Amino acid sequence: MPKNLFIVLDGIDGSGKSEMAMLLHDYFLSKDKKYSILATREPTNGVYGREIRNILANEKNPKENAEKLLELFIKDREEHLNKEIVPFLSKGHGIKIVICDRYYYSTIAFQSAQGLDIKSLIEKNKKFLKPDIVFIMDIEPKIALERINNREKEKFEQLEFMKVLRKKFLGLPSILKDNIKVVNASKSQKDVFEEIKEEVNKLFY
Predict the structure, then answer these.
(1) Which domains can be identified in the chain, with CATH numbers?
(2) pTM, full prediction
């Protein structure tokens, strides 16, 4: 049984990763009240995260500002780890579990889809804490867009860009040594969560 656990859920928008993060949080709470759980996400609500969200909400061209976004994501991640994740995992006794909605996998996938060199992106992110397990939620971009059609779209939520983005995410297991599991997110929420739960439980037993 691990002392601590760092779990990441990632993938294109509309893949259901945020819902899975909430279900995992509730699952761990029901499993043992002694677990300390931090549910968090990137971009954060910090100064860099807010700037990122402003760009995503107000720009239309998905290829614009790749370098600027990369710089902001790196700064946001450094702050996220130093102020939230690492202190949480380091404090007190018992098992601490971090569930993070997006992490450096998004930066590598999104900014390479924007045209930046993927090897350089990996290099810039290799210093960051490696999760114990990562779930890439895979789904057809058309289905993903249908799932989020009731809200205003951000700059990356465009079909052709999302097709490229999906390929970038699916290529990550072959170029990173991280413990990455690709999950078919087009299945029912119950089936998707059962698959994730099964993989997570392997880390405990």
Answers:
(1) 4-202 (3.40.50.300)
(2) 0.95
